[in-house]
Structures are given as structure tokens and as C-alpha cells.
Amino acid sequence: MTARSARFALAVACMAVIVSLAASMPTARLLKPGDAAGRFCTPTMRLKGGCGFLGVYGSVLEPLSLRFKMMKLARLMRHRGPDGGGIHIIESKNTAQRHHSIAHERLAIVGVVNDPKDVADVQISDPTGDHSKLHTLTGNQPLFNHKGTKSLSINGEIYNYKDIKKMLKDKTPWKTASDCESVIHLYEEMGHECAKHLDGDFAFAILDEENDEIYAARDPVGVASMYVGYAADGGVWFGSEMKCLLPECDKVEQFPPGHYWSSKPRQFTRYYFPDWNDAAKATAALDLPKLKDDFERAVDKRLMTDVPYGVLLSGGLDSSLVASVVVKMCKAQNRPMPATFSIGLVGSPDLTNARKVAAQLGTDHHEFHFTVQEGIDAVQDVIYHLETYDVTTIRAGTPMFILARKIKALGVKMVISGEGADEEFGGYLYFHKAPSGKELHEECVRKFHDLHKFDCLRANKATMAWGVEARVPFLDKDFLDTAMFLDGKYKMINKGEKTQFIEKWAVREAFNCDGSDGTPYLPQEVLFRQKEQFSDGVGYDWIDGLKEHCARVVDDYMFSIRAERFPHNTPGTKEGYYARMIFEQLFPSKTAAETVPGGPSVACSTAKAVEWDEAWKKAYEAGSMLDQSGRAVDGVHDSATKCF
Predict the structure, then answer these.
(1) Which of 14, 41, 51, 180 is catalytic?
(2) Are 506 and 284 within 8 A, CB to CB?
(3) DSSP 8-state code for residue 310
């Protein structure tokens, strides 16, 4: 047999294997009308989605060079939006030889596939062509106002877009079916007041050609990732990820949540300042029915999708409640049922409890395992995508990153997750040490304002690394008010008492009942399961194995000179040194390191809460690094092998 024949035979054999594998894989079935058990969608589904955006105001590059630059930088976040993209450039009216631009990488989740209007427009422009195989997708960005003088690039979901459409004075039909188009028309009528009227998770930039202005804003919590950078040529850059800005900017920082930035007057303005920031105003009485109803409304908003979707089900309270509410809502409204997804080491407590929940709810459940070595191997990619060296974020982000890859492989683009409840209701185990309801509330406020640096950052980037969007109903703007106006005394933990005997008791008790379908929301042993941090719940061996690996890689001499190598946020453990070492290799600039917070912490606490426990305080003052695992809270953490 000749070499050419051998190669041909090998190719035929490979094709046979591929065909065989494809035949054995489950196929996506089309959703039939009224089929509440189906979770796959028809070819005429509505799409939009979480994406990646990039913007610059005042670049000295001429248009062609700027277009190439935008393409190059946007490519660094194409994982966030593999379904399409676009670039728009305008010339500055007020500053000679300056240009502004926005770019977009799109993950399609809402918009219209094969919209008849689009097809008709093509037939008009090309009446003799054969368009029988044409496929169109509306909602590609940038999005424009009706006059074409303002353009928008956005990552996010606007849940009140229908209400916005009703309140707009201009009733001209929209050009797309995207909820995000509401933003550009709202800005047209309300200008800088636009952001405060939005209910959703978003990060965006608007180019206003008429006024030679850029307007950028981020949602109140920071669910959507966003950075701002300052270039040597005076240009100001905005983007979904830091890595897109670093090549151009001398200084990069996180865009503060609840703020907008305008080139007029070239500064940040806070638009979100809830009264519950002040503990004196957080005095609401405990109202369990209202808490339950408001959370269900928050979940309902986030079912705005027609693509295959699911729920991240860790087996802990928060994700289990999300899954239960989603399932009961889908059954009652005849909506497509979600799949549920969990991950852990073999035999981990999370997997055990996730199975119980999925069995009771009757979901199409997918359980995935990973090994400690697989987690260690993924850490470098996790740090690259999460853009952090925070130990806790990496510990929890690694299994989430691995899970998101597997979810995308199943064809799922959107998941609903349980982040935020611990910050709102004092759910971390260190809250057992809170000396008073007032101090507990103040710690919840501090934790809330740091969410964009930790849990929101993890949830957004670990999933978007694979083009999967995570939605978080606990961080709904309206539900936030319900949770945060609640008097802190109702969040205190009174172990051994009949009420408030466990962290987040109010949330648990609100759902300690049957749903509209006559079945309990959750099994009792899950509803009253003690808080287990995700990085612990996937299996204690994960953290222990990672620490052992770091101890082998970082020798004692390396660790002894850590302050010389890392003078900013000097790592206090070999695990921290290991993460920092990888981060510096990937992002070797001082400004990148400064985007990551530091300071003393125990079991995810802020520095202030370390003062609640004398042993923690003395340990930190003596130079001992406190651990972030929930197991570090002595006398509080129970073995996860025993249930309620």
C-alpha cells in the first residue's frame, strides 16, 4: 500500500469512528407545542444574550487602524460571544483626528431566527436571488437608535424591556426583537438617567454621534463583568474583560457597579444608592410570604429565554431552591423544563444532595465528576479567564469552569444559579460570630458591595469562558430590597432555638411548605442543610489536594521572599503564592494586580468581621494567615457527611 493510500484508508477509518460516535450521542429533539417536559427549542426560537463588548472614546488611530485594533482586542474575548460580532467607528466632532468605536462579540439567547421581516428585506434588495436557504438572526450589535446617530454595544439582559417600550414617547417600531434595544431608545429620551430605569444585569457603552459623547454603565450589583482603562494617548477604554484593555491601557480598573461614566463631564456618577446601606433604615419586619413571592418573581424574570437552559444544582440550599422554584413555575405555566447540572469529586456531599433534589423535582439531571488532578490542571486556564488571584474565587471557580465546559458540550447556553443569598441573609458560617443584628447587617452591606470582585466575577467569567450565560435571581434588584431592608435581628443565628437556629433561616422557613403542585419545595435534609461553601461541597479533598500541590511547587525559600516579589497584596500562603505566580505570568503588569482585592479574611469574611472573634484577630495580628474554607470556623462547621 502506498503512503497516499494508507492516509486515505486512515481517513476513512476515522470518519467511520466519528459517524459511529455521533450516532451513539443523544440528539436534541424539537420542542413540541405544549410539551412542558421538553427543553430544546425550534429553529424559529427567540434569541439574544450575554456577550462581550469593547469600546473606546478618543483614540488617535485613524479608522482603518482602529478597526483592526478593535478586531484584535475583541478576539481576546470571543469565548464570550461565539455567535456573531460587529464594529462601529465614528469620528470625533470636537477633537481633530480622534475617533470613537464600539465592538461586540455575541452569544445569542434572545432575538429572532429567520424573522419574516428580515427575509422580506433581503428579497426586496435582491428580488431575483434564491433565498430558500437563507437564515437570519436579529439583534446583532451594535444596535442603533431610529435616526442611526446613536449606537449601543451591550452585554446583558433587560428584564423590564416591555415596560420600557410602553413608556417611550417614540412609538416607532423597533428594528430587532432584542430586549437590549430598549436601552438605546431609553437613552435617546432620558439621556444620563437611562441606567437607573433599567431592571437587569448589564454592562454597556453608547456612542452618541450627535453630541460627540460616550455613555457607559454597569448594573447595580456588578453581575455583568466590566472594566475601564486609560490609554497613554488620552483614550478611555471599556470592556467586558480586563485582558482586552491591558494591551492598550496604562491603567485598568473594575468599572464600579451602580455607576455610569460619561465623557461629559468625563467622570463616574453613582445612580444606585439604596437606603438599606444605612443599618438604621433596615428595619423591616419578617414577612415570609412576601419573601417567598418576591423571590419567585425574581426567578420568573430570568426565564426569559427559548434556548436550551438549565439550573446549576450544587445540592446546597440556594441552588436547590432556585431549581425547585424554576421547576414548579415551568409546570404551572407549561414552560419547557430545565435540565439540572452538578459537579464534584466522587462521593462528595454536594453530589449526594443534588441527586436527592433532582429526584424529587424530576429533572433531567446531569452529574459530572472531576479529579483533584484535573482541577489542578485547569487552574491556569481558570486564572486566565477569571482574571484574579483570589484564592477562594479560584477554589470555587475551578469546578464551575469545568462544569460550564461540559454544559456547553450538551448544547446548553444559559443556566440559572444561586449566587447572592449568603451576602443578603448572612449565610456564611462566620456569621454565627456576629455580635448583633446591626453589625450583621453592616457586614451584609460590605459583602454586597464586594460581590463584583468575587462571586459575581466567578459566576460570570467561569461560565462565559465557554459561551454559557449565568443568571442569578437572588441578586434581582427588587428582591435585593426585600432581603436587605429586613431587620438584621431576623438574620442572627440562635443555635438550639426553635427559630433562627441555622444560617439563612428566613429563606428556609419561607419555603418550608408545599408549592402550588401540592409537593414540598425541597427535602427537609436539604432545606435545612448547613451552609457548605461550593469549594468545600464539591469534596474536601479538592482544597486539601490543591494546597498540597502548591506546597510542593512553592518551596520555603520562594515563600520567604514573597514580599520582595509581590509587594502589593503579598500572598500569605503558598496557595496564594502559586495563584499569584500564574496571574503575573498571564498579566505581567502592576495595574492588573491592583484590580484584585486583598486583606485579612476568614471563611469569606471581610476584614472588619475578622474582629468578631478574638482568636481570629490574634491569629491575624500574629501573622497567621486565616483560611477561607468554611471548615475554618471552629465550633460551627458540621461534617457534611451527616444531614439534618
Answers:
(1) 51
(2) no
(3) E
Residue labelled with grid coordinates 434588584: 477
Q: What's the burial of 428, exposed, middle or buried (CB within 10 Å: 0-12/13-18/19+)? A: buried
Q: Which three cell numbers stand for residue 82?
A: 461565539
Of the candidates 67, 108, 65, which has an alpha carbon nearest to the alpha carbon of residue 87? 67
Q: How far apart are CA 522 and CA 318, in angstroms?
A: 11
Asked whether 245 and 252 are in contact (CB, 8 A), the reply is yes
Whether the pLDDT of residue 532 is over 90: the answer is no
CA distances from 318 to 62, 87, 294, 427, 642 (A): 50, 39, 15, 10, 19
Quickly list H helices, 267-348.
288-301, 317-333
Query: pLDDT-derived band of residue 619, with 50, 70 and 90 as boundaries?
Result: confident
Secondary structure element (H or E) that encloses residue 556, with its range: helix 556-560
In terms of Cβ atoms closer than 10 Å to its own Cβ (0-12, 13-18, 19+), residue 153 is: buried
> Rounded to an integer, what distance in angstroms lies between the CA atom of residue 124 and that of residue 561?
70
Q: Which helix (H) or strand (E) holds 354?
A: helix 349-361
Q: What is the pLDDT of residue 178?
A: 86
Under 8 Å between Cβ of 493 and 439: no
The Cα 238–Cα 63 span in angstroms is 18
Residue 607 grid coordinates: 476584614
Residue 270 contacts residue 252 (beta carbons within 8 Å) = no
Neighbouring CB atoms inside 10 A of 634's CB total: 11
Give the Cα separation of 458 and 495 in Å (integer). Answer: 31
The Cα 159–Cα 199 span in angstroms is 6
3-state secondary structure of 184: helix
pLDDT at 362 over 90: yes
| Cα four-point dihedral sign 355, 535, 637, 321 | negative
Other beta carbons within 10 Å of 176? 21
Residue 192, exposed/middle/buried by CB under 10 A (0-12, 13-18, 19+)? middle
Contact 105, 212 (CB under 8 A): no
**Arithmetic mean of pLDDT, 176-195:** 95
How far is it, in rounded angstroms, from Cα 588 to Cα 585?
Answer: 6
What is the tens place of the pLDDT at every residue in 503-523? Answer: 999 999 999 999 989 999 999
In the DSSP assignment, the letter for residue 260 is E
Q: Which three cell numbers stand for residue 168?
A: 417611550
**Can you give 87-130 as a three-state secondary structure string?**
EEEEECCCCCCCEEEEEEEECCCCCEECCHHHHHHHHHHCCCCC
- The pLDDT tens digits of the residues spanning 479-502 come to 999 999 999 999 999 989 999 999
Give which of 198, 199, 201, 203 is closest to 240, Cα–Cα.
Answer: 203
| Those residues with Cβ within 8 angstroms of residue 475's Cβ, 6 or more apart along the chain or in another chain | 201, 221, 223, 419, 420, 451, 456
pTM for the model: 0.88
Kindly give the interhelix angle for 288-301 and 477-484, rounded to the nearest 10 degrees. Answer: 160
Asked if 604 is an active-site residue, the reply is no
